[in-house]
């Protein structure tokens, strides 16, 4: 063994000083009766097999092979095994979650009360807690539980009942003192790691599941924090008859003893399934007695791990013997009979949605998500705060670079440049929204997998929450830059500018939502959004006038480039009803020199339409173009919705 007996003895002594779990369960008097499970008496599975392509040989490789098990109400099962043993894959299979993308074949029969159930029914009965739970850092603990409750229960639940349930869970998980503490953001410290794990579990329990799956709930925590998390969970499960299945890696002795049952895996095969109290007797019976003063979990993991064994051949032979010993044992036979027995008793009747708690409707879910997004939007500066600061700085810079441009023809090109810069770079800066939507997407994936809401509710609420912020950003930017640069000084022209800037930002943010839905990676999304904006800038009509633009870019990209419509209508807004003074003639005999031909050339003036004629722009199409912009926005959102629907 790699650890000395002295070290293990010290750990055993420290673990022994911790309170007895059974005493804690009896002493806890909390109000969590709403969690009581009277529906699910057992969950069982038989012959779970998953085969994937090998990484090197490309030949089929079994991740799981004929794994069976059964857990009854009020019991906690530990899935344990070395890295690569298949415990996370098994957990995902049991929870009806996606299997590895390289999967060739998989078979899995999961029975609730001995009966099969539809995926929707099973999701309504169960919840899954990720290893890295996607909590919203700008919410408090109480708010996190409140919104989880609202997303999972209808409005028939009174405010008093909801508060009582939340208070009961806060007490159950020892979070009463942290109820009004923020979860924590990158720039604002919040809960500790152990407290976050407890909040993650509590946020799933508030939805009143009957079966709870946890992926490495103690990963990254010290032994004391790990014990706390599992002890709180054990108390809730025992009081309310919940079924808890957790994958766990090398728990301390005290944490290991909190579990009722153990499923030990190695190379995808079962090596033990039974009560934790039966482990010592079983391994003594097959000639591998547990040493005294040694963490039993660590001993078992070393026993079935061949990756770091000194004598690889001998270790693999021992593993084969251990697996054969299990298959031939009386406990394995009893497990098979137990699984068959619950299936026989059920009569093969499929479990239905009857009696299962109904979820809120679409409008109720959208409203709840809107309220949550609003809190996040003003507390987390990453969402809109940083963007407001960026746009403010951009407005000041633009207004002072293009400062008080005159109505002489020398200002025409600078005004055109300012229009392009203001619209194009406002759109480009939408890349700052990528990290905020990535967090929203991660939260959505977790909550969607747990059956709380779907892509429709996410896309609608995300679109609605952005409208007021994007309008205020457009207004703030325009108030500063528009008047400093001396664009057409009329109220109607100003608000027309604001309208097109707002539509520009609305389309740019919709593009971010689509790209981030496709590529849920910060670096990739940032690169793709930046590239797309660079493309839109190149073909919107400023860099190359529409009349001479390459036909490929004109017909493939130009006509659905939202920046094209923004630039065109801002140009019309500035030049259609304005005149500019021509320059003095460079030679004697001429009155003046006009850069652009127009109907006022004889008066040494340039009609703004003369500038627009160079781009083939004409007024009168604003209503049509607004409709096209809205179609582009809706198209981006529908595409994002479709991506999220397909990438389940």
TrEMBL record:
GO cellular component: membrane
Region (Disordered): 1-29
Location of the ABC transporter domain: 43-292
Comp. bias intervals (Polar residues): 1-14
Family under the similarity heading: Belongs to the ABC transporter superfamily. ABCG family. Eye pigment precursor importer (TC 3.A.1.204) subfamily.
One example GO MF annotation: ATP binding
Protein's membrane topology: Multi-pass membrane protein
Name of the molecule in the record: ABC transporter domain-containing protein
Transmembrane portions of the chain: 381-403, 418-438, 459-484, 490-507, 514-536, 626-644
Pfam families documented for this protein: ABC2_membrane, ABC2_membrane_7, ABC_tran
SUPFAM superfamilies: P-loop containing nucleoside triphosphate hydrolases
Keyword annotations from UniProtKB, A to Z: ATP-binding, Membrane, Nucleotide-binding, Transmembrane, Transmembrane helix, Transport
Recorded superkingdom: Eukaryota
Location(s), subcellular: Membrane
């Amino acid at each position: 063994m790699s650890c000395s007996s002295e070290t293990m003895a010290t750990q055993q002594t420290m673990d022994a000083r911790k309170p007895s779990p059974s005493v804690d369960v009896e002493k806890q008097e909390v109000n969590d009766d709403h969690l009581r499970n009277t529906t699910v008496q057992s969950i069982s599975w038989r012959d779970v097999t998953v085969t994937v392509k090998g990484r090197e040989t490309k030949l089929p490789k079994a991740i799981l092979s004929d794994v069976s098990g059964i857990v009854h109400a009020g019991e906690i099962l530990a899935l344990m095994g070395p890295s690569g043993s298949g415990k996370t894959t098994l957990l995902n299979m049991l929870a009806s979650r996606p299997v590895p993308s390289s999967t060739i074949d998989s078979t899995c029969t999961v029975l609730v009360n001995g009966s099969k159930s539809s995926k929707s029914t099973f999701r309504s009965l169960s919840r899954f807690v990720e290893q890295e739970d996607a909590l919203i850092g700008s919410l408090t603990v109480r708010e996190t539980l409140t919104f989880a409750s609202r997303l999972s229960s209808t409005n028939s639940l009174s405010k008093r009942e909801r508060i009582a349930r939340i208070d009961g869970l806060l007490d159950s998980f020892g979070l009463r003192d942290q109820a009004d503490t923020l979860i924590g953001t990158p720039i604002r410290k919040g809960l500790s790691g152990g407290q976050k794990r407890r909040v993650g579990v509590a946020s799933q329990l508030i939805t009143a599941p009957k079966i709870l799956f946890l992926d490495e709930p103690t990963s990254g925590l010290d032994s004391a924090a790990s014990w706390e998390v599992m002890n709180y969970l054990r108390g809730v499960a025992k009081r309310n008859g919940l079924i808890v299945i957790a994958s766990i890696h090398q728990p301390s002795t005290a944490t290991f003893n909190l579990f009722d049952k153990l499923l030990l895996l190695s190379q995808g095969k079962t090596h033990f399934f039974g009560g934790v109290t039966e482990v010592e007797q079983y391994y003594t019976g097959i000639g591998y007695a547990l040493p005294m003063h040694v963490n039993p979990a660590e001993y078992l993991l070393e026993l079935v791990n061949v990756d770091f064994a000194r004598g690889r051949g001998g270790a693999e032979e021992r593993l084969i013997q251990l697996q054969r010993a299990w298959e031939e044992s009386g406990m394995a036979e009893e497990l098979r009979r137990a699984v068959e027995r619950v299936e026989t008793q059920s009569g093969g009747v499929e479990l239905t949605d009857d009696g299962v708690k109904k979820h809120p409707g679409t409008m109720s879910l959208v409203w709840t998500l809107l309220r949550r997004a609003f809190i996040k939007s003003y507390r987390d500066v990453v969402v809109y705060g940083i963007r407001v600061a960026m746009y403010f700085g951009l407005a000041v810079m633009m207004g002072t670079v293009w400062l008080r441009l005159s109505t002489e023809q020398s200002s025409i090109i600078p005004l055109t440049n300012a229009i392009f810069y203001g619209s194009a770079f406002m759109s480009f800066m939408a890349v700052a929204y990528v990290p905020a939507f990535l967090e929203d997407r991660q939260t959505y994936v977790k909550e969607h997998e747990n059956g709380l809401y779907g892509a429709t509710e996410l896309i609608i609420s995300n679109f609605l929450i952005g409208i007021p912020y994007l309008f205020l950003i457009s207004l703030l930017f325009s108030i500063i830059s528009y008047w400093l640069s001396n664009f057409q000084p009329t109220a109607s022209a100003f608000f027309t500018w604001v309208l097109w800037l707002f539509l520009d930002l609305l389309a740019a943010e919709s593009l971010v939502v689509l790209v981030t839905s496709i590529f849920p990676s910060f670096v990739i999304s940032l690169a793709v959004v930046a590239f797309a904006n660079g493309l839109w800038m190149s073909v919107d009509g400023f860099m190359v006038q529409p009349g001479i633009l390459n036909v490929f870019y004109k017909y493939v990209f130009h006509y659905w480039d939202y920046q094209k419509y923004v630039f065109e209508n801002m140009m019309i807004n500035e030049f259609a009803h304005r005149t500019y003074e021509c320059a003095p003639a460079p030679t004697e005999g001429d009155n003046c020199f006009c850069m652009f031909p127009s109907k006022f050339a004889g008066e040494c003036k340039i009609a703004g339409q003369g500038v627009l004629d160079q781009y083939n722009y004409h007024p009168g199409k604003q209503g049509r173009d607004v409709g096209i912009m809205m179609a582009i926005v809706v198209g981006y959102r529908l595409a994002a919705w479709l991506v999220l629907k397909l990438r389940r």
